[in-house]
Amino acid sequence: MSDRYCVIGNPIAHSKSPEIHVAFARQTGQDLAYERCLAPIDGFADTVRGLIEQGYRGANVTVPFKLEAFALATRLRERARVAGAVNTLVFEDGEIVGDNTDGPGLVADIVQNAGVPLAGKRVLLLGAGGAARGVILPILQHGPASIVMANRTRATADALAAQFAGHAAHAGQVAACGFEDIGGQVGSQVEGAFDVVINATSASLSNALPPVPAAAFREGALAFDMMYGKALSPFMEFAAQHGAIARDGLGMLVEQAAEAFALWRGVRPATGDVLATLRSRL
Ligand code: NDP
């Protein structure tokens, strides 16, 4: 019987993960099955235990269960521990191993696919939720000049900055602000325009624009929205109107999946064709 994996979420019908992993398996000659798994909102842990009993080898975890997956894991990879969220589970040796591949997926899409190095760049991260938490450490590992986190609820951004200050290579590499401070505060990390602006808020889900000022985008900046869809998000449209190059989160989705696949199977799939196929089907 094929090794079994799935993606757990609620809702889950929209998930593209089965399509991606089946394509990876075909490409790499791996014998596996991958399905969608709808877990009851109050039944994530029971669902995972059921999967383990049925012999599943691992699972991806999506909204709204990434924090519960973090709590349920009996062992955590460093990047999941630091992120405080888990999107990939490995069931091995009686353990539930938790990892977070969202951040490496984002960084791979920016650095490899888009060809935009992060080293020495000024990065602005909008949002301080689960997705934002997962990308901070992988971004820091690429040596940006600074990463500024802006959030609607300022206190959450402050807490994140304090948490990640210990991972910074130098004082001031990590800073936080409210949306109203972006570009201002002369002499601080927040002053001026940014090379890379990442929308990790969920505003695009409701077709809303996070209140980022046009001055945040340096001419030719990369404006990355974690959201993806057929149409440009309001953030991508706004950024493009103000001189930035907009990119959506579809490449991040495929890259985080590739990282999970490599973790499970020990072989790294190529992502280019899979991304192009998904894009053509949006
Ligand atoms: P969370 O619910 O954990 O966090 C939401 C964040 O968005 C919070 O910081 C919240 O601020 C902020 N926010 C919500 N609405 C607005 C608004 N109208 N204006 C400004 N800020 C707002 O969500 P996640 O972090 O899990 O997900 C964020 C986005 O990333 C989603 O669109 C999700 O689909 C996408 N994503 C994409 C992935 C990919 O592979 N492409 C992977 C993971 C996520 P506050 O703290 O004030 O509430």
SSE string: EHEHEHEHEEHEHEHEEEHEHH
* CATH architectural label of the largest domain: 3-Layer(aba) Sandwich
Strand arrangement, major sheet: 2-1-3-5-6-4
Number of domains: 2
Q: What characteristic shape results from the CA principal axes? A: globular
Task: Report the span from N to C terminus.
Answer: 32 Å
What class do helices, strands and sheet pairing give? alpha/beta
Return Rg in Å. 19 Å
Q: How much strand content do the residues show?
A: 15-25%
Q: CATH topology of the largest domain, what is it called?
A: Rossmann fold
Mean pLDDT: 95
- Tally of DSSP β-strands: 12
Percentage of residues in helical conformation: 25-40%
CATH class bucket of the largest domain: Alpha Beta
Q: Considering the protein shown, what is the CATH homologous superfamily of the largest domain?
A: NAD(P)-binding Rossmann-like Domain
What hetero molecules are bound to the protein chains? NADPH dihydro-nicotinamide-adenine-dinucleotide phosphate
> Can you summarize the main beta sheet?
6 strands, mixed
Low-confidence stretches are none
What topology does this entry show?
Layout: E1 3-9, H1 17-28, E2 32-38, H2 44-53, E3 58-61, H3 66-72, E4 75-76, H4 78-83, E5 88-92, E6 95-99, H5 102-113, E7 122-126, H6 130-140, E8 146-150, H7 154-165, E9 174-177, E10 194-199, E11 217-225, H8 234-241, E12 245-247, H9 250-265, H10 272-281
Parallel strand pairs: 1-2, 1-3, 4-6, 7-8, 7-10, 8-9, 10-11, 11-12
Antiparallel strand pairs: 3-5, 5-6
Helix pairs in contact: 1-9, 5-6, 5-9
Bound molecules: NADPH dihydro-nicotinamide-adenine-dinucleotide phosphate.
The site of NADPH dihydro-nicotinamide-adenine-dinucleotide phosphate has 26 residues, from helix 5, helix 6 and helix 9.
